[in-house]
Specification:
Blueprint: E1 6-12, H1 16-28, E2 34-39, H2 75-83, H3 95-111, E3 118-123, E4 126-132, E5 135-140, E6 145-153, E7 173-174, E8 191-194, H4 198-209, E9 216-220, H5 247-260, H6 265-271, H7 276-282, H8 285-294, H9 296-303, H10 308-320, E10 323-336, E11 339-346, E12 353-357, E13 359-362, H11 375-383, E14 402-404, E15 410-416, H12 422-425, H13 431-447
Parallel strand pairs: 1-2, 1-6, 2-3, 6-15, 7-13, 8-9, 8-13, 9-10
Antiparallel strand pairs: 4-5, 5-6, 10-11, 11-12, 14-15
Helix pairs in contact: 1-3, 1-13, 4-10, 5-6
């Protein structure tokens, strides 16, 4: 192999997950440490979630809980108050402001560390990764490559599975939930939003903010919108006894706790956050599938809640008749002389119905990374360097984030972070969870599993 410049850690993915890890490494790295942050879009620190400029897109977690630093709980709130003195712990800030926060914190961390610590941000798509002597070789779409002692897959959320649409309706079906900036439906267009989760709500709020007048339809299997946070936020229960290993006893215990709290279920759900990974690990594969089949939607509508002001706007649109929520299974999308027809089977019914709209948008939520893999994930799976996570969510990893190969063995220099770990840890998509992963993983990477200190040349 020809001599190449080696970096200590290469982070594949420069969105929120990769940035949280980069910040931890930069703030703790010794002199001589070299860090490479890779992102194919160039939206460093913002990623998909925080690059939006829509004022209607606000965080669904209060400012008091959105610190990027696991050991400084009020860090984001303090930053926000310097921008807006009226902001408080229960403020739900605009998402683009959180993007500004991450950008500033990354830049500040880059300037802060010991002399000789280097951060390189590179816009590049990683197509392949393979172990070589001294580390991991990453191959870019350009054909160039780089050698890293350790590589971390911070891939964020994958795209949703494509909607079942005929080729004839290609222009009237937006399969990616967010098209290029500045592209909006005609103000009078009727729009079907396939899905009823946070992405669909984002679309509803953005369309309303842009003065959209056409009818909006949300179609999902259960027809359930996310519940709302209360303001002020209720304090989680301090003591919650939850049985392990089985879904049904767990649900009975949650209902009993909510009844004991006089119907205040939010503190009960929030009290599960510190226990979520332990509970998920206690479930075997059959119980995890039972949860996914029967409980997942209910859990997500209660766990991933809307900011109070967002919920008020959505309910106003429903009350006006502009927004309609339907429960059913989308069978297919076909072309008609007047638009696109959505054939769906209403929940609890056998016969299909049709709904003709001008445009359909895929808001069904992220698919598993292995279900529709990008070039890098496909290469890892084909080489046997990775395997799908439980329920085909993310990629399989151990408790420290080490990537597991096709035989369930740890890949010593390949690591995962954030949504890539969802199958193994379930609660692995929100900043309060990812920042803990970032802090722990940074410690491992700086300690270095091969016995050398960070910043030294590999042996």
């Amino acid at each position: 192999m020809t001599a190449r410049r080696t970096v200590d850690v290469a982070i594949v993915g420069g969105g929120a997950s990769g940035t949280l890890l980069a910040i931890q490494l930069l703030r703790r790295a010794p002199a001589g440490f070299r860090l490479l942050l890779l992102d194919r879009s160039g939206d460093f620190a913002r990623g998909v979630a925080y690059r939006t400029e829509e004022a209607s897109h606000i965080l669904n977690v209060s400012a008091a809980r959105m610190s990027a630093l696991a050991d400084e709980e009020g860090h984001f709130l303090a930053w926000l108050r310097r921008r807006d003195p009226s902001a408080g712990p229960d403020t739900y800030a605009a998402r683009h402001l959180y993007g500004d926060y991450l950008v500033e914190l990354l830049t500040e961390s880059e300037r802060r560390p010991a002399s000789g610590v280097e951060l390189e941000r590179r816009v590049a798509e990683v197509r392949d990764a393979k172990p070589v002597e001294g580390g991991i070789s990453l191959r870019f779409a350009s054909g160039a490559d780089v050698l890293a002692r350790h590589a971390v897959l911070a891939l964020g959320n994958p795209l949703p599975a494509p909607l079942p649409a005929s080729a004839s309706v290609h222009s009237r079906v937006w399969q990616a939930p967010w098209p290029r900036e500045g592209v909006w439906p005609s103000p009078e267009a009727s729009v079907l939003l396939a899905g009823a989760g946070l992405t669909a709500v984002d679309w509803v709020l953005a369309l309303a903010a842009h003065g959209h007048k056409g009818r909006l339809y949300l179609l999902s299997r259960h027809g359930l919108l996310p519940n709302a946070h209360l303001s002020p936020t209720e304090t989680p229960l301090e003591h919650l006894e939850i049985p392990r290993g089985k879904v049904r006893p767990l649900l009975r215990a949650l209902r009993a706790a909510a009844d004991k709290a006089h119907g205040h279920w939010r503190p009960v759900v929030d009290a599960l956050r510190p226990l979520a990974q332990e509970l998920w690990h206690s479930l075997g594969e059959p119980e995890r599938r039972r949860f996914s089949r029967h409980v997942r939607t209910q859990w997500e509508t209660h766990r991933h809640r809307l900011a109070p002001e967002a919920a008020v706007r959505v309910e106003a649109l429903r009350a006006s008749g502009q927004l309609e929520v339907r429960a059913g299974h989308l069978v297919g999308l076909t072309s008609t002389p007047s638009g696109v027809e959505a054939r769906y089977r209403p929940r609890g019914e056998r016969l299909e119905r049709g709904l003709v709209v001008d445009l359909a948008i895929n808001c069904t939520g992220p698919e598993g990374h292995s279900s529709h893999p990008d070039a890098l994930v496909r290469a890892l799976l084909e080489r046997g360097l990775a395997r799908p996570g439980p329920l085909a969510l993310g990629l399989s990893s151990d408790t420290e984030g080490g990537l597991l190969d096709a035989h369930g063995q740890r890949q010593g220099r390949l690591w995962t972070l954030g949504p890539v770990r969802r199958g193994d840890h379930w609660e692995s998509t929100a900043v309060p969870d990812i920042r803990l992963q970032a802090a722990a993983l940074a410690g491992l990477l700086l300690k270095d599993g091969d016995g050398t200190s960070a910043g030294q040349a590999p042996r």
